[in-house]
Amino acid sequence: MSNVIRIDAESLRRLTEVTFLRYGFSSEQAAAAADVLLYADLHGLDSHGVCNLLPIYVKALSDRSILPSSTLRRVRKKGAISTFDASGMLGLLAAKGAMEAAIELAAEHSVGAVTVMNSSHFGAAGYFARMAAQSGMIGLALTNLGNRPVGYAQGSRRAIIGTNPLGFASPAGDLPSFVLDMSTTVVASGKIKLAKDLGEEVPVGWMVNQSGQPVTDPHSYLEGSGFLVALGGWQRSTGGHKGLGLSLLVEVLSGVLSGASVSLGFEDEQNSIGHFLFALDVSAFLEGSIFAERMERFLSSLLGEPVFEGHEALTYPGHSDAKIALERGVHGIPLPAPTVAALNWHASTLGAVSLAEIGQ
């Protein structure tokens, strides 16, 4: 059997929805949560899609660290700012509700800033930032990992930072929206786990050992001998201090500011993941149509820039993702064979239909 199997996207969506329904979510909630995960799989963000359904979401629902009955509760509001307590909600839904609130605030005040505490893993940050772009606004979505850091920085003897992703999105006229979705570590930790499932080594630069030497065996990360590092790497000379700074920026906004747990200094409390969602109404600066035209002109120029031989054509965040989504919508979503086997076993326990393979 191939290490990768193509799965029909709607088949994957149905199993994801059925799973959330079985754990007590409403049909609307199950569909919304599945949409976040399928967005990641369709747009090539493989480490944040349905591969996490069992090891992150079902596991947390089973041990009651995620509570289907919880809802967002606004605990503070002042002008264009709101703070919410998710009370153990599914992060996929908490972040969606928080960005909806940020967009609503921005429609009234031109900006909307929202924090969330007591949440959980929220999937792909770009999904929530793109919600603002789809409303003609600029969006920003940040999250921390609470008090469970996984990344090392500049020789630290222990993990001190989360992957702390950020998503930024903007309308781009007739072009696909600009959607930046990135971790502030070299890669998301899920990509290392994905490489393990595919039986592949990881590229040099993703991990180092305690001496700062490159490590390429994904098992070393899980065993604790391979260290995931901040953007820029292990050394200040390669820009590691900039990656650390970005990670700390996300930690301040999504952790310290929200009242959630933080990667350092809060180890003795129950973990509380925090989010920061921001929406900016561009029409407060320029007519929306003018802004979109300027973005389209800017990004079209970037796409047309010549490159030296041996380099791929320039693109921008969101442009290649849109192409991938079109291709995967037709030809299916590639998943590691072990993931497909685990999901099909899970489907059998629910009495659900197995995943539909494409091209097998």
What descriptive keywords fit this protein?
Hypothetical Oxidoreductase Yiak, Chain: A, domain 1, Ribosomal Protein S8, Chain: A, domain 1, 2 domains
How would you characterize this protein structure?
The chain has about 350 residues and is α+β, with helices and mostly antiparallel strands. The protein folds into two domains: about 1-70 and about 330-360, Hypothetical Oxidoreductase Yiak, Chain: A, domain 1, CATH 1.10.1530; about 70-185 and about 230-305, Ribosomal Protein S8, Chain: A, domain 1, CATH 3.30.1370. Helix content is about 40%, strand content about 20%. The protein is built from eleven helices and 13 strands. It has helices at about 10-20, 25-40, 55-60, 90-110, 125-135, 190-200, 220-225, 240-255, 290-305, 320-330, 335-350, and strands at about 5, 75-80, 80-85, 110-120, 135-145, 150, 165-170, 180, 205-210, 215, 225-230, 275-280, 335. The strands form three sheets. Strands 2-3-4-12-5-7-8 form a seven-stranded mixed sheet, sandwiched between helices. Strand 2 and strand 3 form a beta hairpin. Helix 1 runs antiparallel to helix 2 (about 25-40) and helix 4 runs parallel beside helix 5 (about 125-135). About 50% of the residues are buried. The mean pLDDT is about 95. One of its GO terms (molecular function) is oxidoreductase activity. It holds the Pfam family Ldh_2. It comes from Rhizobium tibeticum.
